[in-house]
Every structure is written in C-alpha cells, then in structure tokens.
Specification:
about 180 residues; globular; 9-stranded antiparallel beta sheet; alpha+beta; 4 helices
Amino acid sequence: MRRYLAALTVVVSVSPALALDMPPRKAGLWELTMKFESRNIPGQTMKHCIDAATDRLMSANTGGGLPQQNCDKQDVTHAGGMTIVDSVCHYGGATTTSHAEITGDFNSAYTMQVTTKRQGAPAPGMPASGETRMTIAAKWLGPCGAGQRPGDIIMSNGMKMNVLDMRGAGGVPRVPPQR
C-alpha cells in the first residue's frame, strides 16, 4: 500500500505541470504505466476511466486540486511535435520544480518524460528533498468497462478509487499557498 501512495504522490506532484494548456484526452479507459528511474519505487500501472467532463474538471483544477496561485511558474511550450512543461509550485511545506517532455497524441497514446525536484517537507514514501525521474506511458484501451464510472482509477493491485470522490462533496479541496 505504501508504494502505491508513493506513486500517487509523485503523479500528483507533477500533475499541476501536466494539466496546463494540454489537449483533452479521448474519453474512455486509459492505461498509465509509470517507471521510476531515480527512486526506490517500483514501476506502477493504473487504469483511469475518464469522460470529457472529468478530463476538463481535472485540467481546470490543475490535476490534483492544486490551485494555480501555489505556483510561481507554469510554462507550456510546443515545438517539433513535443510539448514541454516547466513549473515551480509550493505545497505541503515543499517546493517542487518539474520539467516534462510530452510526445504522442491524446487520442491513442502519449509518453511523458518527467523530472521533478522536491525541496522541503517529505511526502509519503519520499524524502524531504531529492530528484525523481520517471516515464509515464499512456495508451487508450477503449471504452470504460462495466461498473466503471468517470474518475475511477484502478491500481495494479486491484485497489480502486475515484478522483471525484476524493475531492469531496464540497468540491475540490484547496491547498493554501506556502511560499
């Protein structure tokens, strides 16, 4: 369970950078495979069921509920078929600097090479400071399965959660700026 929390923590820490000015993903079931190069975290695979509304909601809230005011920098550039995203954000007592290079398309498959540098407070399964490099390979599998609803994330161990439920009935939880 701890390694799954660590993997989700890494994804949430880079998601503010990845939600900006990105094309919408095709609705349906996406498989995301994360491979970590610089941490003692095993690779993880998860499936994520989305629809257009869920994808827009996640992007509008910078992917994990992190308000944009927590970020000093959120730059997106497009060049040569690649999208490059650079961000510097503050939350949980830490400063996270991310650089992502994204290739592919959001209808069938895309790949992200992400480098994240964290300084300050530790996160579950991670030290207070350090660098994480990972590759996220995403591919569209088809329509969501029976019994799945938009926002469902199914981890490789069978654990299931819904990002909409995690945000609570009152909407997206907000993290106060920390500078």
